[in-house]
Amino acid sequence: MLHRNFIAFALCLVAFALTAKVNSVSFRVPGLQSSDALPEVESSVVVRGRTSTLTIVGKSLSQTKAVEIEPATGIKVVEIKKLETRPDGLNAVSIVLSVEANAEIGQRTATLTAKDNRMDIVWFSIGTHDLTIRNLKLESRRQEVIKLEEGERVIAAANYSFNFEDEAGDINSDDSAASIQVMLKCGRTGSGFYAVPTRVVMEGQNRGTVYFSIHKDQLAHAKPECELQFRLKDKDGNESNRLKTNLPFGGQ
Q1: 154 and 102, same domain (yes or no)
Q2: 74, 18, 69: which is closest to 50 by C-alpha?
Q3: Which single residue of 37, 103, 205, 234 has CA 20 to 30 Å from 130?
Q4: pLDDT at residue 28, as a whole number
């Protein structure tokens, strides 16, 4: 009976993760307690063929005693480092992972069990190389006219940019396959969509600046306390770290 209940619960968890489209989700297992606030992975990508550190931050995190990776094929937990409390009041736990060279790229989950038996799940990705972004800027806001079947419509748009560094040099000014994952996080819930770069300006072979826009309609359900998170994704599915910012449109 307990086994069937756990399977039903796990299926509900998967359904929630697919609906919410967020990168970390906290859950409750019978007999265990979950954290009060959702943890987040600071840099959610580890590179195959290397030893990488996954750092998880959260307001209610406590010292982790065990980590379980799923799927576990091709990846091993090497070390769980001591809990650190940062100046901003957040706690951080770093997990050292060893990833085999032939490990399959894509998303994995890490289940963290604390000494007080609280459990949290965070999502991360295995990639083939490092892809990092920094210096997120809100370049401008504007009113944009779009054409619909029923006529033209004026909507608010926000123009952003960030710098990137791509170890493999896959992203370039003619790249039409790169995309920006936009995540709207509102407390314990979230949603997401993809934006296409409007322009990529290269500064050498491996770095440059990505420009993109989002519309107010895409954030229709946003509340003032929500935050935006951006991540760059290349044509092979490699994902960058995340950058965060406040909502660009007033009155949400």
Answers
A1: no
A2: 74
A3: 37
A4: 32
Tell me the whole-structure pTM to 2 decimals: 0.73
Q: For the stretch 218-228, what's the b/e string if a residue is b when 16 or more beta carbons lie within 10 angstroms of its beta carbon?
A: bbeebeeebeb
pLDDT at 7 over 60: no
Determine, yes or no, domain membership for 251.
no
Q: 153 and 237: one domain? A: yes
The residue type found at 142 is R
| Distance of alpha carbon 218 from alpha carbon 232, whole angstroms | 18
Q: What is the CA radius of gyration of the chain?
A: 20
For residue 68, is it within any domain?
Answer: yes
Beta-carbon contacts of residue 158 (< 8 Å; ≥ 6 apart): 138, 140, 141, 213, 214, 215, 216, 248, 249
Q: Which residue has the higher pLDDT, 47 or 150?
A: 47
C-alpha 222/C-alpha 184 separation (Å) is 7
- Total count of domains within the chain: 2
The helix/strand/coil state of 87 is: coil
Other C-beta atoms lying within 10 Å of the C-beta of residue 135: 10
Instruction: Give yes or no: residues 7 and 44 share one domain.
Output: yes
For 11, 16, 31, 188, 192, the CA distances from 38, given in Å and listed in that order, are 20, 14, 19, 7, 17
Same domain, 147 and 235: yes
pLDDT tens digit string along 30-56?
333 334 457 888 877 899 999 999 999
**Tokens 């409007």 label which residue?**
198
Is residue 123 within 8 Å of residue 18, measured between CB atoms? no
